[in-house]
Amino acid sequence: RDVVINQFNGLLCNPRNSSDLAKKMEELYLLSEEDRSTLGKNGRDIVINKFNIDIVIDKYLKLLNSIKLR
């Protein structure tokens, strides 16, 4: 949920709703190869830009430093 942007890098379904999940799985299956590839590329870009090890460590260190200063 925190990584997926609906229709940009995946499809979100309603929580605890198996019929909605099945519907979204079918929608993904019916997408063209090009559209599925675009979703995958967009997802990879998000992960690289949001969860890059340097970014995660920097945020973690800033959090630790802010706690130490209090």
Give a short overview.
The protein has 70 residues and is mostly helical.
Describe the structure.
The protein contains three helices and no strands. The longest helix is centred in the middle third of the chain and has 19 residues. The radius of gyration is 17 Å and the shape is elongated.
Structural class: mainly alpha
The total of beta strands comes to 0
How would you describe the shape? Answer: elongated
Average residue pLDDT: 93
Straight-line N-to-C gap: 32 Å
Strand content: under 5%
Order of helices and strands: HHH
Features:
single chain, 70 residues, mainly alpha
SSE blueprint:
Elements: H1 18-30, H2 33-51, H3 53-69
